[in-house]
Specification:
It is a single chain. The protein is of the alpha/beta class. Helices cover 55% and strands 13% of the residues. The protein has helices spanning 10-22, 34-42, 51-57, 68-78, 96-107, 122-127, 138-148, 163-191, 196-204, 211-222, 231-248, 253-267, 279-283, and strands at 3-6, 27-30, 46-47, 60-63, 87-90, 112-115, 118-119, 130-135, 152-159. The protein is globular, with a radius of gyration of 20 Å.
Length: 285
């Protein structure tokens, strides 16, 4: 079974590298950044000049691109080469409704489609320990699960097309609110002479303990905002969440506040920094 992979960015690069290492057949790759393609080719992938060339070779076609419009563009490009027997897996984090529209378009050709967005960041992608939420039929899920396990250690089907993305958006929205709470209370503690490490240890003793704080306390203490997951990507996700909530008639005042923080972070030019850089908004830097 030949695998194709399009989108070799911060996450996609390491996800694809794990496939190359663990899969026993050819892996074809494409990205608009030629250096990324060359890097994966040096690790054993077969470079291609376009998404369509990847699709022409692949039995399973995987995409990991930034936004809804990018996913739509890729699948419109490869549509002429889709047919029964081909499997498409979009691991991008995009608007669930757009993903459902892409699924309908793909499945009309006889091919099959799953949305399978990931959680956690670059270190987990490197280690092959991502969490992956899947939106697909049960039959397709069983077929693709072994491939997804090349990249992740926790893989869960959430329902039919679009449901993997709904879960991913809910996850990232909750992270944004936990993060904002950490940023605000950590800043308040610092103003009263409590440093980050004492704060983090004390938090761990009670019900406010959380994975975000545990994983970010060191980089926050060092003020190291090297990107594992960018402000601009989380900014996209929190806005997708509010749009989804509006469509469903759900009130999310906490997330509305998180969106204001991310909007301000983008105004401050923090988009390319790690998403923990939002603490600068709270600090007024």
């Amino acid at each position: 079974m030949k695998i194709g992979f399009v989108g070799l960015g911060i996450m996609g690069e390491s996800m694809c590298e794990n496939i190359i290492k663990k899969h026993d057949d050819a892996v074809y790759v494409f990205d608009f950044v030629k250096e990324k393609v060359n890097l994966l080719a040096a690790k054993g992938a077969i470079p291609c000049a376009s998404s369509r060339e990847v699709m022409q070779h692949a039995d399973v076609f995987i995409t990991m691109v930034p936004k809804s419009e990018h996913s739509r563009s890729v699948y419109e490009e490869v549509l002429p080469d889709l047919c029964a027997g081909k499997i498409c897996i979009d691991m991008s984090t995009i608007d669930p409704q757009v993903s459902v529209e892409i699924a309908t378009m793909v499945k009309a050709t006889g091919a099959d489609f799953a949305d399978a967005p990931v959680v956690k960041s670059k270190p987990a992608a490197i280690a092959g320990k991502l969490g992956i939420y899947v939106g697909s039929s049960e039959e397709l899920y069983e077929k693709i699960r072994p491939i997804l396990l090349y990249m992740g250690e926790n893989v869960k089907r959430m329902g039919d097309n679009g449901k993997g993305l709904v879960m991913k958006i809910c996850h990232n929205a909750l992270v944004s609110q936990i993060q904002n709470g950490v940023n605000e209370t950590m800043t308040l503690a610092a103003k009263n002479g409590i440093d980050i490490y004492n704060y983090a240890e004390a938090i761990s003793y009670g019900g406010a303990g959380n994975w975000y704080l545990d994983s970010k306390k060191d980089v926050l203490a060092k003020e190291d905002y090297t990107t594992a997951f960018s402000v601009e990507n989380e900014h996209k996700d929190v806005h997708i969440c509010l749009n989804l909530a509006k469509q469903c008639g759900v009130s999310m005042p906490g997330e509305e506040n998180a969106v204001r923080v991310y909007d301000k972070a983008m105004e401050m030019g923090l988009g390319k920094e790690d998403f923990c850089a939002t603490i600068k908004v709270v600090r007024g830097e």
